[in-house]
Request: fold
Amino acid sequence: MSIFSIYCVNSADTNPIERNTLYNDFCYVFSSVFSSSDVKTLFFAFIGAFAAYYFGMRQYLVQGRCDHNRQLYFEDGLIKFISDVDLALNCQAMNWARSLQILKMYRDSNCSTDRSYFERGFSDVEIIPFGTDVHYRMKRLFGSDIQWSIYQLLLAKVREYSDLVRDDFYAAVCFSSEGKTNFSLKEIIEKYECKISEMHSKMRIYYDFMSSLQRIVQGIERKTFNNAFIDECPKMEVMLNEVSIMKDILKKIEEEAD
Reply:
């Protein structure tokens, strides 16, 4: 039983003078214990350890949330999106080179109309991810879905580019070899050469889109990705400027499509 408990129990059975004496004894013992330098040292050490634990744990949780946001919105968001755009542009560039190679072969010699010949050497458009989940996170960073609109048009353009030679030109060659068209093979090749060159020139605007994305990376890569930054990111100067540029890019793409 503690000194204070003993005092409380016994105080009811004592007269005022005895109670005053017990109180003085209690105060003396209490002050003697806590006036000890060892106890003071232990007490302040405990307070210091608790404060260090509390603020350290708090900082750990805050940093953990920032690291999670960086991984989610930057590494698996913006960087992943740029990688997908780069993959689509590389796919288009390889298919453009393969298309010119096929046209050159048919221009210089009468090649086979075997379907497999038109399939070889083309990059498969299906390997490019659609990435809907990524774009939901991107929309929070951008404050807009403008990048999603441009990306969809890019995938459609890459698909159109790939099908132009593998399907359209192949059908034209077959018709020519079977005498089902009034155009000669030379005329068909010249027509598709012009068409491929025109389509390739229209792809350049998507490289401007890539440049805009890279400028955003440079503008936010050193930021602390806490929740406040995620919410304020659409209002940053670099984001507002690049979103405005992307709107102009989208407008040009739509005008060219018309």
Observations:
- The CA atoms of residues 118 and 166 lie 5 Å apart.
- DSSP finds ten helices and no strands in the chain.
- The chain has two domains: 3-35, 72-257.
- The chain has a mean pLDDT of 78.
